[in-house]
Amino acid sequence: MTEAATTTSTTPSLNKFEKFKAEKDGLAVKAEIEKFASLGWEAMDETDRDHRLKWMGVFFRPVTPGKFMMRLRMPNGILSCEQMRVLAEVIQRYGDDACADITTRQNIQLRGIRIEDLPNIFDKFRAVGLTSVQSGMDNVRNITGDPLAGLDADELFDTRELVQQIQDMITNQGEGNPEFSNLPRKFNIAITGGRDNSVHAEINDLAFVPAFKEVGEESEEKFGFNVLVGGFFSAKRCDAAIPLNAWVPPEDVVALCRAVLEVFRDRGLRANRQKSRLMWLIDEWGLEKFRAEVEKQFGKPLISAAAHDEIDWEKRDHIGVYKQKQPGLNYVGLHVPVGRLYAEDMFEIARLAEVYGSGEIRMTVEQNFVIPNIPDSRLETFLTEDLLNRFLINPKPLTRSLVSCTGAQFCNFALIETKNRALAMIKALEMELELTRPVRIHWTGCPNSCGQPQVADIGLMGTKARKNGKAVDGVDIYMGGKVGKEAQLGTCVTKGVPCEDLLPVLRELLIEQFGARLREPATV
Ligand code: SRM
Ligand code: SF4
């Protein structure tokens, strides 16, 4: 283990997280799952229950004590119908208590999990190659990649294998890897080989974006990635990633991830958790020193960045029916309202992927999913399936782009309820307004920004507002988020709008800034 990690237990200024990590590594709970299952959640050590279990992707929910959440890992957002069925079976046994969510990192979380079932659940996961290891706390989160990797005629690089290799390196093939289980803080990695920045590269601690560079003696243009570092959102500060001034060929991506993670692990700031994300280290050192330290760890000179990257498209949302690069095959993107799924939906998604496609399902960062590889000959019948009445391929413009974090229903950080409120609000707005284009509205229940309000056209961040001298549910409004090429973060334009007064405020914004028109009143 590293110097920073080993000396932490003797440093007096350690915050409580560094203390408990130094006392016992989070991954140690892997060997204790059977014990916890027979003990029950009430009798468990609180730090194991509330914190260390997150190293196995198991989250105690103070809002629903005893009903845990499980966060999977889904490299590149891809899973098989067999894996989807296992996830559905896991929650099915909990009846109405259970559901699942597609997350803003192309991933799935399960809800309602009982601790006594964990040994059996992990066995089931292992049997189909699923892992939830190191998906929470001070670990690398799900690694995102293009949802159309290998399908898109215009893609420059198929990211699937690389994302899997990075995950395998970090998690020791999904078994857990103590080398990377004690980072100073969470860490996000994204890699895109397409032209539309489908992963929001700019909001990751480490991102790889496609770029051609003349390298070698023949001065040939070679494909590789420009590297961005330090992007993150937190309650204290939000920043877009900045260029590291480095370009790597695909074969060096895993090694560079390792080098950056090692620098972050060994030298990252650990005293104050509000100042521990990678960008704070870059600030403290300056980019030049950070780059030099990464280079040292990488073990060979970093090549300077290509002059420009290849992100030159507007971001696509993948909802609808599209031709693949493979002749005769199609992919279909289905819209899942605020990402919420139930067991029966998941079984049905798995069935459709198996019967009509190749058995594969792909998540998007907009909390929707894509079924690829549907032959022309089966497309028409596919489109008549009942599930497509629930998960639409042509939702109305506001519904189409709606994203929401978990919110108060399950998250104890939440200042407001989000998912149900978001759906109700959009429905009401769509009754009143006609829109000719999607407007991306993102809800997030607190300043942690899991729902990414800063990437939205209109971002709504939960807060407590004041109305008639009383504290009420409210939102801060963010605007100006731009995604795809020339992505930029939105900023807060209005603070503390009570949720009960939000509808007319959004109506006005949509009319004035996004070309919405009031519907004609219905004539009898
Ligand atoms: Fe998040 C913590 C949910 C994406 C920034 N996030 C949490 C916790 C674990 C808090 C908790 O223990 O209750 C939430 C779990 C609630 C629950 O029951 O679901 C939570 N975050 C989510 C998800 C599920 C939101 C969603 O509805 O999609 C997303 C899961 C992604 C995944 O599959 O791993 C999720 N979280 C994000 C993102 C977006 C992204 O990665 O693109 C961000 C902002 C980007 C970033 O991290 O830089 C994000 N979450 C946070 C933060 C603030 C981090 C910080 O540096 O301060 C926290 C709080 C923390 O870590 O201390 C947090
Ligand atoms: Fe919970 Fe806040 Fe994240 Fe929403 S933004 S999931 S309320 S931590």
Textual characterization of the structure:
The longest helix is centred in the middle third of the chain and has 15 residues, at 253-267. Helix 9 crosses helix 10 (287-298). It is globular and about 70 Å long. It has 524 residues and is of the alpha+beta class. The model is unreliable at 1-11 (pLDDT under 50). The chain has helices at residues 3-7, 16-23, 33-39, 46-50, 81-92, 118-127, 160-171, 253-267, 278-285, 287-298, 343-356, 376-382, 387-390, 397-400, 419-432, 502-514, and strands at residues 58-59, 68-71, 78-80, 99-102, 108-113, 189-191, 206-215, 220-229, 232-233, 238-239, 242-248, 320-323, 329-334, 340-341, 360-363, 369-375, 403-404, 433-434, 441-444, 458-467, 470-479, 491-498, 517-518. It is 29% helix and 22% strand. It has 16 helices and 23 strands. It folds into 2 domains: 3-298, Sulfite Reductase Hemoprotein, domain 1; 400-518, Sulfite Reductase Hemoprotein, domain 1 (2-Layer Sandwich). The strands form 6 sheets. Strands 1-2-5-4-14 form a 5-stranded antiparallel sheet. Strands 3-15-16-13-12 form a 5-stranded antiparallel sheet. Bound molecules: siroheme and iron/sulfur cluster (SF4).
Outline the fold blueprint:
Layout: H1 3-7, H2 16-23, H3 33-39, H4 46-50, E1 58-59, E2 68-71, E3 78-80, H5 81-92, E4 99-102, E5 108-113, H6 118-127, H7 160-171, E6 189-191, E7 206-215, E8 220-229, E9 232-233, E10 238-239, E11 242-248, H8 253-267, H9 278-285, H10 287-298, E12 320-323, E13 329-334, E14 340-341, H11 343-356, E15 360-363, E16 369-375, H12 376-382, H13 387-390, H14 397-400, E17 403-404, H15 419-432, E18 433-434, E19 441-444, E20 458-467, E21 470-479, E22 491-498, H16 502-514, E23 517-518
The structure holds siroheme and iron/sulfur cluster.
Residues 405-407, 411, 413-414, 444-446, 448-451 line the site of iron/sulfur cluster.
